């Protein structure tokens, strides 16, 4: 598992969870959905993702690092 895959999995999970909570609890949970989407949007331009930084510090390899180990 790589940093990039984990970021996509966590982002997708948070979006689905907040959508479910907005239907089951309160519509204000859609603000969390918007936050996750905005974070994904800005990280596409800036390459800054707080979760990716945490995962890298925890020693999770990136796609590039994993490819270099395989060759």
* Beginning-to-end CA distance, first to last residue: 17 Å
Question: How much helical structure, as a percent, in the residues?
Answer: over 70%
Largest sheet: none
How many structural domains can be distinguished in the coordinates? Answer: 1
Mean pLDDT: 95
Question: How much of the polypeptide forms β-strand, as a percent range?
Answer: under 5%
Poorly predicted residue ranges: none
Shape: elongated
Count the strands? Answer: 0
| SSE sequence, one letter per element | HHHH
Structural class: mainly alpha
Q: Count of helices?
A: 4
Gyration radius from CA atoms, angstroms:
15 Å
Essential attributes:
71 residues; mainly alpha; 4 helices
Describe it for me?
With 71 residues, the chain is mainly α. The mean pLDDT is 95. Helix 1 crosses helix 3. The chain is 77% helix and 0% strand. It contains four helices and no strands. The longest helix is centred in the first third of the chain and has 22 residues. It has one domain.
Briefly summarize what is shown.
This protein is 77% helix and 0% strand. The chain has helices at residues 3-24, 30-46, 50-57, 63-70.
Blueprint of the fold:
Layout: H1 3-24, H2 30-46, H3 50-57, H4 63-70
């Amino acid at each position: 598992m790589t940093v990039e895959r984990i970021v996509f999995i966590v982002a997708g999970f948070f979006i689905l969870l907040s959508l479910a909570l907005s239907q089951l609890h309160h519509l204000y949970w859609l603000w969390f959905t918007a936050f996750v989407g905005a974070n994904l949007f800005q990280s596409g331009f800036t390459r800054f993702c707080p979760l990716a930084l945490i995962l890298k510090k925890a020693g999770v390899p990136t796609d590039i690092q994993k490819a270099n180990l395989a060759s």
